Amino acid sequence: MEQHIGFFNSILRANAVIIEHEALKDYAKDCTEDLEYIPQVALLPSTAEQVSKIMAYCYEHNLPVTPRGAGTGLSGGALPVNGGVVISCKNLNQILDINTDAFQATVEPGVINEVFQNACKEKGLFYPPDPASKGSCFMGGNLAENSGGPKAVKYGTTKDYVLNLEVVLPNGEMIWTGANVLKNATGYNLTQLVCGSEGTLGFITKIVVRLLPYPKENLLLLASFNDIATPCRAVNAILKAGITPSGLEYMERNAVDWSMRFADISLDLAAETEAILLVEVDGNNLETLYQDVEQINGILEEYDCSNVFFAESDLEKERLWKVRRVCGEAVHSHSIYKEEDTVVPRNHLPELLTSVKAIGKQFGFESVCYGHAGDGNLHVNILKGEMDDEAWNKTVKLGIREIFEVCKNLGGTISGEHGIGLVQREYMDVVFSVTQLELMRSIKKVFDPKGLMNPGKIF
Ligand SMILES: Cc1cc2nc3c(=O)[nH]c(=O)nc-3n(C[C@H](O)[C@H](O)[C@H](O)COP(=O)(O)OP(=O)(O)OC[C@H]3O[C@@H](n4cnc5c(N)ncnc54)[C@H](O)[C@@H]3O)c2cc1C
Known about the structure:
CATH topology of the largest domain: Uridine Diphospho-n-acetylenolpyruvylglucosamine Reductase, domain 3
Shape: globular
Number of helices: 16
Radius of gyration: 22 Å
Distance between the termini: 26 Å
Helix content: 25-40%
Bound molecules: flavin-adenine dinucleotide
Largest sheet: 7 strands, antiparallel
Number of domains: 4
Strand order of the largest sheet: 15-12-14-13-17-18-16
Number of strands: 18
CATH class of the largest domain: Alpha Beta
């Protein structure tokens, strides 16, 4: 690598070329288990043109390139498994435009999701995709993973907002994938192909998204249940009643307890509570929202809900959402875990949950589940605890495969929003045929014939 550093120094500021071992550790991990891969160099460009020059050089010299956002990924996508060059989005962090007439915005990939959401809100506009990690994850990472979040049940995921992307291809060439329009039936949809491609097809340097008017009001309640599967049945009943909440989140009791401890928040839950639902409705008419809440209350009662807590103030809402948002970190602080991002048609969630627990018993692991119940997206966190490495690396994987088989048989798949990255690629055969996988590999080859762009991911 030493021979290449001179080139990188010639196009970037001195502090944007990182080669010291200790400093490189910041680019070696994400939030996936305890995995660590140290790159040979990390580069922090601040313009798309610099990214293009770096990528052209790496292509010519056969250097593997791994794009990196904030490193909050849960499938190991940003880990430089083959060493080489990490290109960080950290200094590509400008909100370039928020257009209140066109309801569109253009941002660089290093903008933090929440910073962007707040900037939109100040102008009366709404960017709904809000991963629980919104306070730290970057827009580029969100695009690359097609991230979701609690609001997806009503508003959809990142793919539903992206209109156009500026992308640097592996050989350094720069393209726009589409046009800044709401409708587009012009040729293959390169924008949607790059969205969710996990940094394996190119480096995203600009993102154009559509925006909505900001909903003025919201109401939030927490419902407690004395068993783990009934809340998932209630979720479906709420939607079938014609109400589309802006959040329908599920947490098992352990997840709630650990999150409360982690965030130093206390909620008054009965000893018998086994699981909770957070239900949020939003809109512009408060009276209609209260009617929705009344109807939801009725449905929750029918589904044996033991208690409903209604958040009376913004502070109470914030506290409830915080318990949900810190959940991943809380579980992580409890034990090393493998987080499976299972997703099934919503009506099959109860069967998925029951199967996960039965498979855990069979393979000897404990799991704690939470997630976006309104989307049928359940995060199954398998805890390492005191398990030895042999069991963790072999037996648990057999159990995960079983869980994914269940997902497939219920009409679902193996990732709803976290992507395949490094850690899920060995399960791709559960849901894709040889022909399907070959088609995907062929697409990858067209973009990246030398296989240098985020190698070791997806396939
Ligand atoms: C506590 C916690 C809660 C979470 N909650 C949610 C949630 O509710 N919903 C959800 O969907 N996810 C969630 N996540 C997962 C994670 O935050 C998302 O996947 C997020 O989008 C990753 O963004 P990042 O900037 O951290 O990307 P990174 O982890 O740095 O990278 C993720 C992938 O994007 C690629 N990439 C990054 N930037 C670019 C670019 N400019 N061009 C091309 N490829 C790029 C990387 O190569 C990698 O493959 C959560 C994670 C944590 C730790």
